[in-house]
Write a structure and sequence with these properties.
Blueprint (H helix, E strand, L loop, with lengths): L13 H18 L12 E6 L4 E5 L12 H11 L5 E8 L6 H10 E13 L4 E8 H4 L12
Length: 151
């Protein structure tokens, strides 16, 4: 007896898209608070934690350039300082937004390899916005993973 193929249910991405939009808006708002008098390169970031809370951060520069900190690490450290330990998603907003190597390693510390990474190439003066979505594992292949190292 032949059986009917199972009907495919349409995937409802409205919840995921709404969360992505919240992250994007939080990262944009954080970018406006960036302190970047030296590079004039404002960056905003927002992380979604397992608890469902969003934490944002911006880059903060210093005249002693080595003492500056990126928006991604500010957002993650802010979440950790509030007791959060797992990042489910992260959004970075800047012109040609991409996390630096140090931020990628910090992301790997607090996010699963399948955690969503959203890069928002945002140029507010030209009103241009391009979204790229990847995962933490793809962002930093062969990362130093503390769980794999037995730490």
């Amino acid at each position: 007896m032949a059986t009917k193929p199972a009907k495919k249910r349409p995937v409802n991405n409205s919840g995921r898209n709404a969360m992505r939009r919240k992250l994007i808006e939080a990262a944009k708002a954080a970018q406006k608070k960036a302190y970047c008098p030296y590079s004039r390169y404002p960056v905003g970031a927002a992380v979604l934690t397992e608890s469902g809370r969003i934490y944002s951060g911006c880059n903060v520069e210093n005249a002693s350039f080595g003492l500056a900190i990126c928006a991604e690490r500010v957002a993650i450290f802010k979440a950790v300082s509030h007791g959060e330990k797992r990042v489910k998603a992260l959004c970075v907003a800047a012109k040609s937004a991409r996390p630096c190597g140090a931020c990628r390693q910090v992301i790997i510390e607090f996010a699963a390899k399948d955690a969503e990474m959203i890069y928002l190439d945002w140029q507010p003066l030209e009103r241009k916005e391009k979204v790229t979505i990847t995962t933490a594992g793809k962002m930093l292949p062969l990362a130093f993973d503390p769980s794999e190292a037995g730490l």
